Amino acid sequence: MTKKSEEKYDKILQAAIQVISEKGYENTSISDIVKSAGIAQGTFYLYFPSKSSLIPAIADHLLTITFEKMKLVVSDQDSFWIVLEKVIRTTFETTEDFKDIIILCYSGLAIEHSMEKWEIIYQPFYQWFEEKINLAIKHQEIIDTIDVKLTTKMIINLMENTAERYFIGKEHDALEEEYQKEIYNFIKRSLSAF
Amino acid sequence: MTKKSEEKYDKILQAAIQVISEKGYENTSISDIVKSAGIAQGTFYLYFPSKSSLIPAIADHLLTITFEKMKLVVSDQDSFWIVLEKVIRTTFETTEDFKDIIILCYSGLAIEHSMEKWEIIYQPFYQWFEEKINLAIKHQEIIDTIDVKLTTKMIINLMENTAERYFIGKEHDALEEEYQKEIYNFIKRSLSAF
Amino acid sequence: MTKKSEEKYDKILQAAIQVISEKGYENTSISDIVKSAGIAQGTFYLYFPSKSSLIPAIADHLLTITFEKMKLVVSDQDSFWIVLEKVIRTTFETTEDFKDIIILCYSGLAIEHSMEKWEIIYQPFYQWFEEKINLAIKHQEIIDTIDVKLTTKMIINLMENTAERYFIGKEHDALEEEYQKEIYNFIKRSLSAF
Amino acid sequence: MTKKSEEKYDKILQAAIQVISEKGYENTSISDIVKSAGIAQGTFYLYFPSKSSLIPAIADHLLTITFEKMKLVVSDQDSFWIVLEKVIRTTFETTEDFKDIIILCYSGLAIEHSMEKWEIIYQPFYQWFEEKINLAIKHQEIIDTIDVKLTTKMIINLMENTAERYFIGKEHDALEEEYQKEIYNFIKRSLSAF
DNA sequence: TATGAATGAGACTTCATTCAT
DNA sequence: AATGAATGAAGTCTCATTCAT
């Protein structure tokens, strides 16, 4: 893909995200998207093979951004517990920022009966966090009797789902910081080596 | 609603669940549903105001079944850790049994931009498990420094999401029993009073 | 099919024939047809599964009319040579009357890569004429050394194609009656028992 | 047209014939053709003014090939009945070889509502065969009471349509040789001077 | 209460053609 | 002469919903 065509791809993707976030996937027509992107109807199909192919593209885009942010705020020098705290906070932040996109990814991936794709898209993030956990085990910050793969995914899902319940499900049983603190404590009690 | 009309309501709902589970919400037409239910096109609208009104009805139906099963397997005499084990197992079982319905609830609720409804539908289940936790605190089986509401939801979501990743996301990093065991241990380490 | 729905089927078919005859198959949209038939867009699809399904229906309709006319003008008392003369004349008449429909059948069946259907549709007409020939053999009006099936089809095609060249191909190397006479003589010389 | 541009014209035409033969005229896009020809989208329009202009070009190409073959197999020394036999056989051969192209010519010419063009394209072939017939009359091989023009066309159409019914319509009431023999006999009985 | 034919808006997608490079 | 990205009109078909019976 040339630089110019990549630009157009991004332009379409951005327009799609914006429109679909507002109106929902099913209520958005290609016509809406191209109008918003300022291109012709047919041009859309030069960059995406179909309407439904937008969803994985959007999901991918979302995780890329999220993951970038994680890597940005977390330093290699941070202890595991600092990392955890930062990851929780960042998860809440990105969930708030991108809640509409998250919703459409849920619906989209569900629509396409392709929940498996989540796993593929999440792979780099899982891997990154797995390494943090392995390091923490090595540094004896956390116990070594866990299944690292499973625990990684449990933690990430715990953070994400709680944040989603808070921002998307509008579940407000406590303040945001208390939510974050409660997750942190829950995990710390479970994994701490001391 | 008379008994007879309730029967027809159920007949339509069952047909809807079956067809939508197979084909997905968007690919299912009212025509498909009424054919499967053996009624006329117009009759559908005597029982449901619209196609989209099926989704909350189905979600409600799903939670009702799940919750019934929970209450059935769990005895009041069970210790909290027995309860937890049973609840985890039952969650995995129902997730496997109803994975198609779960998917359609995800997509459906997302479609309707009404994730909040989940919370309402889940209310009775949350409440029931909250009581179990409060009892466990009282019996000094688990620590008393937690936020009960938040912890309840975290646990339930932890179980459900892991089960969904396993059965729907086809994530198979370990055997099913190991998944269940890992969740159990994770929670136990975090909450156990000893 | 009830009487009323049969009426609507015919109404659509007539509208389709008329519009497609004028504009050609490819240049005709369903929208044109339903407008001409005075029905709603969707109604079309209650009676025909697709646009292309019109073609066999039209072809069938055409042959039905043609065949009816043949049976009407030809009497059981007619000698074979009278029958032949009448069939040639009728072929020319119907070709002139329905030349637009004939064109669309050609294009349509060709488009659908389903030339074989012609044979099926023509079956009753072929059969009827075959019997005439068999009778003529029995009555020793024509020779008995021919392959009846093949000869039947050759004769019918000879008549039809010549008529089509005359009316559709606008080939006017002679007067219409001369064309008819030439076909008649050609066949008579070939088959006459004397 | 320079030699080089003629080559490219042919390349496009060949590609068009091949692709349209496979997929049918309507299902073939210019995009398919240029891909197959290995040229750019816009280049097509340097050699053909429009998609539909391909059809007469293809038809012309088809008849050129067919006619070349006829002239090749038929010798000036052949008696009329030898010529007839050879022409019938060749007609069957080319019909088999080019059945897809024939179909597309039918549909194409019909699409364009320009059946008359057939006559123009066929002109040289008609003329050639007419001369054969005139010669046969002169040599008293066949009777002289026929209309040469009309009879020529009847014979050619008889051969072609029978071959088309056999190879395209998949009408198999007898073996191929029997079909050819039956046509031959039919014509011979009709025209033979003895 | 039940029916099911009719509606008609609107969606996705294709593709012949153009034109700036 | 050649390219190929962009255009945007147009087409087929679906389907939730209505309403006369």
UniProtKB/TrEMBL annotation, chains A, B, C, D:
It comes from the Bacteria. Transmembrane segments: none annotated. GO terms for biological process: negative regulation of DNA-templated transcription. Residues 29-48 bind DNA. InterPro entries: DNA-bd_HTH_TetR-type_CS, Homeodomain-like_sf, HTH-type_Tx_Regulator, HTH_TetR, Tet_transcr_reg_TetR-rel_C_sf, YvdT_C. Keywords: DNA-binding, Repressor, Transcription, Transcription regulation. This is TetR family transcriptional regulator.
